[in-house]
Amino acid sequence: MKTYSLLLLAFLVSYSSLSQSTLNRPQTPTPPFYYNIEDVTFKNIQDSVTLAGTLTFPKDGSNFPAAVLISGSGAQNRNEEIMGHKLFWVLADFLTKQGIAVLRYDDRGTAESTGSFAEALTQDFAKDVEAAVDFLKTRPEINQEAIGLIGHSEGGVIAPMVASNRPEDIGFIVLLAGVTIPGDTLMKLQKELSLRSMGSSETYIEQELLFDTQLMPIITTTPIDKLSESLKDFTTEYLNNHPEFVKTRGMTAEAYTNTLVASYTNPWFYNFINYNPSSALQNTKCPILALNGTNDTQVPSKENLDALKQLKLSYPEKNITTKAYPKLNHLFQESVTGSVFEYGRIEQTIAPYVLVDISSWINSVVE
Length: 367
Hints:
By secondary structure, this protein is α/β, with parallel strands linked by helices. It folds into two domains: 3-181 and 278-365, Alpha/Beta hydrolase fold, catalytic domain (Rossmann fold); 206-272. It has helices at 3-15, 87-97, 122-136, 155-165, 183-197, 202-221, 224-241, 243-247, 253-264, 267-273, 278-282, 301-314, 352-365, and strands at residues 35-44, 49-58, 64-70, 81-82, 85-86, 101-105, 142-152, 172-176, 288-293, 320-325. An eight-stranded mixed beta sheet has the order 1-2-6-3-7-8-9-10, with helices on both faces. Strands 4-5 form a two-stranded antiparallel ribbon. Strand 1 (35-44) and strand 2 (49-58) form a beta hairpin. 44% of the residues are buried.
């Protein structure tokens, strides 16, 4: 995820490429591995992208259920590595030991995958996931009726996109802090929670929320080719009428305006803010497991799980399971505040009981 705290997460993703030799990450898998590990490539022919990844599956048996792991926002490698935490490697290792094959891959334009990450929208990443599913369907080890998707954060937006578009091919989806509410609504909630977790004053938070309340309707009603001019006009007028707002932002009015325009006219960001996941979720036929942490400041637990609970009430026939974990953050670490700045200080990569819940649920729905 991006924007305010999402931009902070993008910083953390970039920082994760630096030396992590001093960080203790006890859950990172280490040899020996008692399952098959295979480096693979597959193609998104439609976009001329080659994805590079890792397929893991048990040594004994056949006809394994399988899961494609879908990363959150920001260019990430197949391990969804952030601050030395290799969330997807830990998840893949655990699931494979429970008899579930796992395919994880580098985002397009990242590590060993080709293509351009910067030019892609969420819908483009969905096409990469479809290519991953097509690849698994060629593998003799895989149960063709039990291929599912596990999406984290933005990946939780992508999974229902694919499941609703390919109902005959997707057996289940797991949403790990997946976004289920409109993008503009998420942005305001996310900003409030992120600022509060970092100890910002209530006055500062109120100023930000008032600004966003007037800003978001402009973004959701203005075509992107006209957005830059509209944002400049709105911001200039707002800052003139609220001089105290500028003083507490640590930059000139011109610099603030330019930064805001550059952010919100980014095609990915504009598309995300204007996207509502409800239609894809409504059209998803397979079982859904949605997990969130109550300390998540990026994808608020209550509002996103409530959207799925309401969907279940409207469509009782749907197989939807939701669970909120007390004190877990966006990475499903046991945390204190949920702030993104805690991620690197916490040694735990993902709470072990979350891993158990994911694997148990998958094995229950594919039996």
